[in-house]
Amino acid sequence: MQRAHLATPSVLLLARLEDALARARSAARRSGRPVLAWASAPAPAADPVTLFARAEGLVTTRLLWARPADDLSIVGLGVAWEVVAGGDRRFATAGEAWRRCLAQSCGAGDVHGPVALGGFAFAPQVVQQPAWAAFPPGLLVVPALTVRTQGAHMEAILSVLVPPEGEEAPRRAVEQLAALLAPDDPTQPVAPPGAGPGRRTGLVGSHHTGDAPAAGTPGDVGSPRRLRQRTASLAEEHPPAAIWKALVADAAAAVQRGELRKVVLARAVTVDGIGVDATSALRRLQVGYPDCTLFAVARGDTCFLGATPERLLRVRDGMVATGALAGSAPRGTTPDDDQRRGEALLASPKDRIEHAVVVDAIREAMVAACAEVAVAAAPRLLRVSNVQHLYTPVQGRLRDRYGLLDLAGRLHPTPAVGGVPRDAALAWITAREGFERGWYAGPVGWVDATGDGELAVAIRSALLCGSRATLFAGCGIVADSDPDAEYAESCLKLRPLAEALEAPAALSGCR
User: Fold this and answer.
1) Are the beta carbons of 375 and 421 closer than 8 angstroms?
2) What three-state secondary structure class fits 16?
3) CB-based burial of residue 198 (10 Å sphere; 0-12 exposed, 13-18 middle, 19+ buried)?
4) Peptide bond before 413: cis, by omega within 30 degrees of 0?
5) Which residues are catalytic?
6) What is the pTM of this model?
7) Mean pLDDT over all residues of the chain?
8) Are 76 and 202 in contact (CB under 8 A)?
9) Is 63 in contact with 75 (CB distance < 8 Å)?
10) How would you write 149-213 as a 3-class SS string?
11) Residue 458: which of 53, 212, 118, 47 has the closest Cα?
């Protein structure tokens, strides 16, 4: 593909990238370390899900973040730089590596610079099951191409890692990514010329650190996956319903004995015969849950996606916004019924206790890292399409030595997905839950070169691989939790993803 055939944004990006690459090569030779080169330029309007879909088959790592309530979306394609981290310090390890990357980077264009996207597993280590093989305990990626939209402002960023010796990403691979910005038919994926099953070509370099191995070859070129029409069916519940209800009863008894104040029990449902792909599921979630954060992380043939109502934290100009989300009830069938159910949730002693535990834990974590912490006096209702929650906003200002990932390490896991006391609840979950959560209920999101960023809690989520999907849900257990009621609540939380995957019938026995 010749430069003359590229759209204007691509021409500008590539010209700016040449300047950044020249400086990065000199810096890499002097320091003996890889240096990130990046260039940014205004970009044409692009629907994030469409752009995510167009890169299928071109790169094997694709990331999407869209928060319609803030009129913000970020799509990342390919890998220029990444850090893989595990263990108790995985947030700090990722944050330190990101700061080093920025300090050594050479850029041209917008002063905001590059954006890193990624996510973290629920637990410090992930049992290496095939389903989660491409999703390490911590992963932060600077995409080879990032498209960021904030209101009417759209920006594209090309990034390349320059090694101290050898060659960086081939120019043709970079041009193929830049071509995604061309104003041609946005409904069709862009396939690299000559690429097909069995053929792979390197796209970009990557940098690894931490104590977990890198997963796959994120910059390779592959071929798009197509699914035949299928009838989805329930393959397995993890754990089976009767066992899970018994665990709820055991957890409630542990709270009654004073061993725990709260513990969150999760369950997973595996569905076979899925006939839709990740893009189709994201489209349905985008339309059906506009008040939620839409996210997707595709690694090879596996994609973790969802639409979550829960924010872990957001940082803007040093100001932190977070909140407690705990206590749930179904939406009503009529406006009056909906209001009645909401009022009952606000008045429910069980749900208010569960909610207060989360508020207290978030306040405690915030005070250590923030000044001027403010907590709303009482919870309000946060409503999404099929469920409503108790929600209390919390705000503060980061102290100078803390960044987004530092605070994330203090907040995660909140009692909304773990429990209180934290260590006792996590030990209880590890010993009894019986399946690998992976990235379910972990933080997913982004951070930019200014320190701004946002992480959401990856609930209302599913892991897709071919025609198989695993859906996740969890419930907070306190002293008076009823096993049947908690099981019904978990089924309610599974339904959005089941419907997005055209598999609601697979939950027909989930009552």
Assistant:
1) no
2) helix
3) exposed
4) yes
5) 262, 310
6) 0.86
7) 86
8) no
9) yes
10) EECCEEEEEEEEEECCCCCCCCHHHHHHHHHHHCCCCCCCCCCCCCCCCCCCCCCCCCCCCCCCC
11) 118
Tokens of residue 446, six digits: 């982004």
Hey, what are 159's tokens? 């990034």
Q: What phi and psi values does residue 368 have, to the nearest 5 degrees?
A: -70, -30
Residue entry with tokens 């197509």: 226
The closest alpha carbon to 330, from 473, 510, 492, belongs to 492
Q: Please report which confidence band the pLDDT of residue 96 belongs to, taking 50, 70 and 90 as the band edges.
A: very high
- Predicted confidence at residue 38, as pLDDT, reads 96
Q: What is the mean pLDDT of residues 250-265?
A: 95
Encoded tokens for 334: 């009529």
Name the residue type at position 461. S
Count of CB atoms situated within 10 Å of the CB of 206:
23
Residue 203 to residue 199: CA distance in whole angstroms: 13
The band of 183, judged by pLDDT with boundaries at 50, 70 and 90, is low
pLDDT at 93 over 90: yes
Q: What is the C-alpha separation between 506 and 469, in angstroms, rounded?
A: 11
pLDDT confidence bin for 109, thresholds 50/70/90: confident
Query: C-alpha distances in angstroms, 291 versus 68, 263, 286, 308, 323?
Result: 7, 27, 9, 9, 15
Q: How far is CA 341 from CA 327, 349, 473, 475, in A?
A: 12, 14, 21, 18
Q: In the numeric block, which tokens belong to residue 436? A: 């690998």
What is the bridge-based pairing of β-strands 453-457 and 138-142? unpaired
Number of DSSP helices (H) and strands (E) in the chain, helices first: 11, 23
Task: Name residues whose C-beta falls within 8 Å of residue 121's C-beta, 6 or more positions apart in sequence.
Answer: 132, 135, 136, 137, 138, 437, 438, 439, 442
Task: Please state, in angstroms and rounded to a whole number, the distance separating the CA atoms of residues 305 and 462.
Answer: 6
Buried/exposed code over 12-38 (b: 16+ C-beta within 10 A; e: otherwise): bbbebbeebbebbbebbeeeeebbbbb
Taking a C-beta distance cutoff of 8 angstroms, is the pair 234, 274 a contact? no
Q: DSSP characters for 281-337?
A: HHHHHHHH-TTSEEEEEEETTEEEEEEES-EEEEEETTEEEEEEEEEEEEPPSSHHH
Cβ-contact 58, 143 below 8 angstroms: no
Sign of CA dihedral 391, 392, 395, 398: negative
C-alpha–C-alpha distance, residues 237 and 269, integer Å: 5
